[in-house]
Amino acid sequence: MPISQSKIVLLNLVELCVAVFRGPGREDWSRLADTALPQLLGHVQAFPGFPSGPLRGMADALAPLADAGDFSDLETEYVRLFIAGPGGIPAPLYESCHLGGERRTMGRSALDMRDRLAAAGLSVALDSNEPPDHLTLELEYLYHLCAEGWANDPALAEQAEAFAAQVMLPWVRRFRDALAGADPHPVYLDAADIVVAVLERVPDA
User: Which of 76, 83, 99, 140 is deepest in the core (most CB within 10 A)?
Assistant: First the structure.
């Protein structure tokens, strides 16, 4: 059956967040600023309760960088926030690091995510040594469940609702708070707010 426009917009928002948290290059940032964000903002504003504020904030923060043709600050900030900050990584992109206790990768959540991807027949789209509970992989898995479930498989739609609400939302909220505490570039905080809003919306889509 056809997917409603509101659900298509949610899928587009997931794609946007995957792009941002994967670390776009200059040309990708430019496309986001010049084309993708303005179009998506127009669609989001048609649906009350969708995250138009963070999306508009992201567009506004990207505009001067796009005008200058220089996104190097975002690349430097990506490294500081998510890969190798001076005093440690403020906001790791892995579920395992936001479950309480000692931060560690390849914990139980990574193994669970590996099993989910294998059961769905999905391959890992990051470097081979990346743990599978990376935020972008979980978002891509959610995209798969939503797109297939909303189109023709109610069982997958139910899986999407449970995965969004029970697995992703608790740790992504903690990730968002950790990110906010690191004085991030607003583009990344807006993107985290969009992820939280999408995860809250999926069960009611």
Answer: 140
